Amino acid sequence: MNVKERLAKVREKVKVAASRAGRSPEEIKLVAVSKRQGLDKIKNVLDEGILDFGESRVQELRDKYDNFEQEINWHMIGHLQRNKVKYLTRMDRCKLIHSVDSLRLAKKINKRAKMEDRESNVLVQVNTAEDENKYGFMSEEVIEFLREVSSFEYMKVKGLMTIAPYVENPEEVRPYFRKLRELAVKIEAEEIPGIEMKELSMGMSNDLEVAIEEGATIVRVGSAIFGPRDYE
User: Fold this and answer.
1) CA distance 148 to 6
2) Do 45 and 224 form a contact (C-beta atoms < 8 A)?
3) How large is the angle between the packed helices 103-116 and 142-149, nearest 10 degrees?
4) Cα–Cα separations (whole angstroms), residue 20 to 7, 12, 26, 61
5) Long-range interactions of 72-77: CB distance < 8 A, separation 24+
6) What is the overall mean pLDDT for the chain?
7) Contact between 218 and 29 (Cβ < 8 Å)
8) Secondary structure of 209-229 in the HEC alphabet?
9) pTM of this prediction exceeds 0.85
10) What is the pLDDT of residues 103-139, one digit of tens each?
11) Residues 175-190 pLDDT 10s
């Protein structure tokens, strides 16, 4: 199966899951996770109308950014070190940072974005599974954090992100996606100035349908589109 066929299959899954949830497929942004994928494969996906690509390493995002003349919406979806923030805010390389997981990182993003005189859009990573091996705030910490960063002029919170544990049966992770949606509703009720809950980034290749049924507005899909990654 080639990239075009795999992408068509993913799009059909998005459409069917959205229909089950009484939603429009247009509400869901498909981010093609291109980490460790070659430029040719990315070009093939671009040719199919996908403009949003996700990377988990800043260096890889930088390298790929410089190889494409056309406008691509790059997403930073992996753990972000503070000393790498400058590479994302510079030249507006990154449209959305999905993985803000500490106040220190948030301060760094706001500072660097101010230096570039450019707003940086972010999502707050929440460890809904309370997995000690994953990054992110615990659910009960998020509102306090949002109050602290609500005054940041250059870092703009647009929603939440979570990474569910990998399991064979996607139904097992439904509670983690539901927990994120319920947290977003709770945050909206707080009406914190400057904080938006437009986006819920959750769901990957193996569980995107469940995530969409639970309210995902962004799904991050890699192997289901590109096939196996090249780890050479």
Assistant:
1) 42
2) no
3) 30
4) 20, 12, 14, 35
5) 72/46, 75/31, 75/220, 77/31, 77/33, 77/161, 77/201, 77/220
6) 94
7) yes
8) HHHHHCCCCEEEECHHHHCCC
9) yes
10) 999 999 999 999 999 999 999 999 999 998 899 999 9
11) 999 999 999 999 999 9
Instruction: Indicate the class that CATH gives domain 3-226.
Output: alpha beta
Find the length of the chain: 232
Backbone angles phi, psi at 146, to 5 degrees: -65, -35
Among 140, 141, 158, residue whose Cα is nearest residue 196: 158
Cα gap 9→209, rounded to integer Å: 12
Among 36, 11, 38, CA closest to 25: 11
Q: Match 């609500």 to its residue by tokens.
A: 150
Q: What 3-state DSSP class applies to 76?
A: strand
| pLDDT per position as a tens digit, 187-218 | 999 999 999 999 999 999 999 999 999 999 99
Q: What does DSSP say about strands 120-125 and 155-161: parallel, antiparallel, or unpaired?
A: parallel
pLDDT in tens, 51-65: 999 999 999 999 998
Angle between helices 174-190 and 142-149 (to 10 degrees): 40
Share of the chain above pLDDT 70, in %: 97
Weakest mean pLDDT among 20-29, 42-51, 61-70, 115-124 = 61-70
Q: Compute the distance between CA of residue 70 and CA of residue 91 in angstroms, rounded to an integer.
A: 14
